[in-house]
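Request: Mind sharing a record?
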Amino acid sequence: MEIAGWIETNFVLPEPDVPDYRGYSPEAAAAALRRYWGVGEQPIGNSIHLLEARGVRVFSLVEYCRELDAYSFWRGNVPFVFLNTMKASERSRFDAMHELGHLALHRHHGITRSRETEQEADTFASCMLMPEFDVIGRAPRTPTLRQVIVAKKYWNVSAAALAYRMHSLKLLTDWQYRTLCVQLAQHGYRTNEPESSPRETSQVLKKVFAMSREDGVSRSALAAALHINVKDLESLVFGLVMTGIGGGGAAPRAAHSSSDHLRLL
């Protein structure tokens, strides 16, 4: 919260724009949100960039929270999502959309989540990442494991998630789905994603720290201003965005002018 507060004091971020879909089914909520955000039926290119463009504050989970897949909550009217960056990119994308499901479907549930709400968030994530008609039109029929691995790259999801989505849309029989699940387990693909895509990182945080670097703000100066150590700072902001901010440097300056407003294109 301290890092987010410092960023919001010094930069202009996109306003939160996550509708309240309480009372919707997960399928209807995902379809409505895709229409509202103008995503249509196309694959989501970068889940973190999409969330950030709609005002969701995205951070990574620190080391001692690695047992969690992801977490989210509302603070006032601002939504936050925390992701486990140790997982495969495809699984982290699913986690991001899962947490978006909680933000949209369960806004006032707070930290109390049930088996039902978790299942709803899973269904929402599946629908967001793999829209029904796109999957029906593009997914292979009677697929082999290899065909599933190739096809999953189009939506940038895990092989297991695509197989599950195809089964839920009745594109796979129960027997076909069970066969694929057995094969995925035999090859270790339940825990190690085959032919994984590059990890997604934060665009907002990258811009924030690039601007800070231009101002001569070092890692140590920024951490000192936030009253945390440098390691904790790096672990909370996806690590890579801190690259190049080293050495000395001035303390953080006042809020940037309108010419420095962050824009996500």
Remarks:
- Residues 12-129 form a domain with the Arc Repressor Mutant, subunit A fold (CATH 1.10.10.2910).
- The longest helix spans residues 89-105.
- The two ends are 26 Å apart (CA to CA).
- Confidence is low (pLDDT under 50) at residues 244-261.
